[in-house]
Write a structure and sequence with these properties.
single chain, alpha+beta, Immunoglobulin-like, 46% strand
Length: 147
């Protein structure tokens, strides 16, 4: 009888420990699922940092510049980030990237034109899983002739 009582106590402890471990896992999973991937900032500029954020922010470019755009995200999750580069209301380029992040991150896109961008008004629009998360207008100015 003593042996049987000890076995029952040991089983209860194992079951209680299993329930406690399961509860901790469910709480941890619940905390992380509340932080979905979300866009927080859009950056535009002439160069990029090693962490894929924009280094020199601007909205005015020369025809010969490479134009960089980055979207900063927070939270955890996977998704598809797409940019739509527009000039005179027409789509110039529309690349996308599948991402999976845990915490803050940057996703970079860039565009260049070997013959130079025509001067005028442009914009870049970012999408996360098909939903627009913001647009940034920018301008390409004529290059000044050197005397």
């Amino acid at each position: 009888m003593v042996h049987c009582a000890l076995m029952q106590r040991a089983r209860r402890r194992v079951v209680a420990a299993g329930i406690a471990a399961l509860a901790v896992m469910l709480i941890a999973a619940g905390c992380s699922s509340d932080q979905h991937l979300q866009a927080t900032t859009i950056q535009l500029g002439r160069s990029i940092n090693p962490d894929k954020t924009v280094a020199s922010h601007t909205t005015r470019f020369k025809p010969s510049d490479t134009i960089y755009a980055a979207v900063l995200t927070d939270g955890s999750g996977s998704g598809t980030i797409k940019v739509r580069w527009l000039y005179a209301g027409r789509v110039v380029s529309e690349p996308e990237e599948k991402v999976s992040y845990r915490g803050p991150a940057a996703t970079e896109f860039h565009i260049q034109n070997n013959t130079g961008f025509p001067p005028g008004e442009y914009s870049v629009e970012f999408y996360l899983d098909g939903r627009s998360v913001g647009t940034r207008p920018f301008r390409v100015d004529e290059e000044k002739a050197h005397r």
